[in-house]
């Protein structure tokens, strides 16, 4: 059973804080979802949730959390005034839902976002926002379990002693694309032949060696 960092009594407060923070950062400040998730992790604020720091699970508002994050990673940047609305955006829901999942699973936000990007969670709003949170938790568990299985691309790359960054630089394929293929967020079996060729050339393997189901090349 997962050992949770703080009492369930504070969960609603923590979830509301993240909901407001994600909505404000993305919809008002114009920060892209995955970029804000990275800032959230790099700033150290996400780690405070992981240990149940009272300043984030019961102290700061979502707006204050965003300001604290930005001050740490981009000091001097001016942020717009918050815009309050009674409607709940997909980004608001994503913040609330991922806070719930982090508490239930006891995984770090870094671990969660490394397998399921925030941009993908936002897109889950349409299907899951009216469901019980248990449905969201179940599908997140399944996604993370599936994407934790090593891929052919990752195995070959690591066997060659090449980092993701090095592969991106040598192949001309974007680092983020390589990461998404290895995480199984994007299906490498559906990658363009040119992309597969560039990667295989660097790794010294056949294009079909990179595929998970190599029956048919794209």
In short:
The protein is mostly helical.
Explained architecture:
- With 218 residues, the chain is an all-alpha fold.
- The protein folds into two domains: 140 residues, no CATH class; 59 residues, lambda repressor-like DNA-binding domains (434 Repressor (Amino-terminal Domain)), CATH 1.10.260.40.
- It contains 14 helices and no strands.
- The longest helix is centred in the N-terminal third of the chain and has 18 residues.
- It is globular and about 55 Å long.
- The model has no long low-confidence stretch (mean pLDDT 92).
DSSP helical segment count: 14
Topology as a string of helices (H) and strands (E): HHHHHHHHHHHHHH
Distance between the termini: 43 Å
Instruction: Please provide the count of β strands.
Output: 0
Q: Structural class from helices and strands?
A: mainly alpha
Q: Helical content, roughly?
A: 55-70%
Tally of separate domains:
2
Largest sheet: none
Low-pLDDT stretches are none
Radius of gyration, in Å, reads 19 Å
Q: Give the oligomeric state.
A: single chain
Strand content: under 5%
Report the average pLDDT across residues. 92
| Shape designation | globular
Helix and strand arrangement:
Elements: H1 11-28, H2 33-42, H3 45-50, H4 54-59, H5 62-73, H6 90-105, H7 109-115, H8 118-123, H9 125-128, H10 133-147, H11 152-159, H12 164-171, H13 175-182, H14 193-203
Helix pairs in contact: 1-5, 1-6, 6-10, 12-14
Key phrases:
single chain; 218 residues; mainly alpha; 434 Repressor (Amino-terminal Domain); 2 domains; 14 helices
């Amino acid at each position: 059973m997962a050992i949770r960092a703080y009492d369930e009594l504070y969960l609603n407060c923590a979830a509301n804080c993240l909901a407001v923070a994600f909505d404000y950062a993305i919809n008002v400040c114009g920060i892209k979802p995955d970029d804000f998730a990275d800032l959230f992790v790099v700033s150290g604020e996400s780690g405070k949730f992981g240990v149940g720091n009272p300043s984030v699970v019961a102290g700061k508002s979502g707006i204050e959390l965003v300001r604290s994050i930005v001050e740490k990673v981009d000091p001097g940047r001016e942020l717009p005034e918050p815009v309050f609305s009674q409607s709940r955006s997909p980004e608001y829901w994503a913040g609330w839902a991922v806070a719930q999942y982090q508490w239930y699973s006891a995984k770090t936000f870094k671990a969660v976002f490394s397998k399921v990007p925030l941009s993908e969670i936002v897109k889950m709003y349409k299907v899951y926002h009216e469901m019980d949170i248990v449905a969201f938790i179940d599908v997140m568990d399944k996604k993370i379990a599936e994407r934790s299985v090593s891929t052919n691309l990752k195995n070959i790359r690591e066997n060659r002693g090449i980092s993701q960054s090095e592969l991106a630089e040598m192949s001309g394929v974007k680092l983020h694309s390589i990461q998404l293929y290895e995480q199984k967020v994007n299906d490498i079996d559906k990658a363009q032949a040119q992309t597969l060729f560039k990667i295989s050339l660097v790794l010294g393997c056949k294009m079909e060696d990179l595929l998970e189901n190599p029956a048919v090349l794209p």
